[in-house]
Amino acid sequence: MKNHAKLTTQRLVFLALMIALNVVLGRFSIQLVPEIRLSVLGFLPIALSAMLMGPFYGALTGAVGDVLNFLLFTHVYGGYFPGYTVTAALSGLWYGMVLYKKPLSWLRATLAIVPVIVVGEMGLNSVWTYILYSKSFWAKLPMRLLTNVAECPLKILLVMAMKPVIARASKSGLRL
Question: What is the tens place of the pLDDT at every residue in 75-84?
């Protein structure tokens, strides 16, 4: 195993913090209907862990954060469905593939966010909602489209807002 891929104590603590932040920031959302909520903060810890540690750790942060959200807030979301965990893991994986060890730019932030929204949130999550609730994919799509169009520019701005944080962490000698 390469040195950068080892799970050191520092990496483990950072991942635990990112997972905890994912759970906490995911609470700051507006529930529009039972299957659709507007949330622009919960993705940040997943994206940050993917940016600093790579695709595998981004996927791990997304998956574990999703499972913890279920365990802690079952009364809010109902039963566990692994499809949403797959979507969360794929999101972290994609953020890492696009953002890890690459200069952060508006184009790169857009390339990280838009496919996650289109494929993951509008595509896969709509399929999971159909499977769980037997709601028509096409009937729910306009509402999902509206919420995701609203979230997209905010998420891109938030990713770009992390640029100085990442630069400061690099200057301070943070090694993850």
Answer: 666 778 899 9
